[in-house]
Amino acid sequence: MSGFSKGDHEGDVLKYELTVLPEFEDAMMRVLGWKNLEESAYGDCLLTAEQIRQIAMALDVQLPTDLDLFIGVRE
């Protein structure tokens, strides 16, 4: 996961980064509606406020609410 200042699509200065551990991948895919990693969106996709809330609960972490958060699959 990566976070950038809201609306800062030109500066793209990374403000937050979180690597999701393999044991949480199933929970992440359920939140995102993916059946497997191959169904993931190409590149990074912007998370909704509800997805961020559900991911925070699944991972038991506090995620920043003042940033645009994105998720992407890394190989």
Care to describe what's here?
With 75 residues, the protein is of the alpha+beta class. The chain has one domain (2-71). The protein contains two helices and four strands, in the order ββαβαβ. The protein has a four-stranded antiparallel sheet, with no helix packed on it. Helix 1 (25-32) packs antiparallel against helix 2.
**Global structural class:** alpha+beta
Distance between the termini: 14 Å
**Sequence of secondary-structure elements:** EEHEHE
Poorly predicted parts: none
Number of alpha- plus pi-helical segments: 2
Which shape, going by the Cα principal axes?
A: globular
Task: Please report which band the strand proportion falls in: under 5%, 5-15%, 15-25%, 25-35%, 35-45% or over 45%.
Answer: 15-25%
Task: Note the main sheet.
Answer: 4 strands, antiparallel
Strand order of the largest sheet: 2-1-4-3
Residue-averaged pLDDT: 85
Radius of gyration in whole Å, from Cα? 12 Å
In total, the number of domains comes to: 1
Give the proportion of residues in helices.
25-40%
What's the total number of strands? 4
Primary descriptors:
75 residues
List the helices and strands and how they pair.
Elements: E1 2-5, E2 14-17, H1 25-32, E3 45-46, H2 49-59, E4 67-71
Antiparallel strand pairs: 1-2, 1-4, 3-4
Helix pairs in contact: 1-2
Describe the structure concisely for a colleague:
With 75 residues, this protein is α+β, with helices and mostly antiparallel strands. It has helices at residues 25-32, 49-59, and strands at 2-5, 14-17, 45-46, 67-71. Strand 1 and strand 2 (14-17) form a beta hairpin.
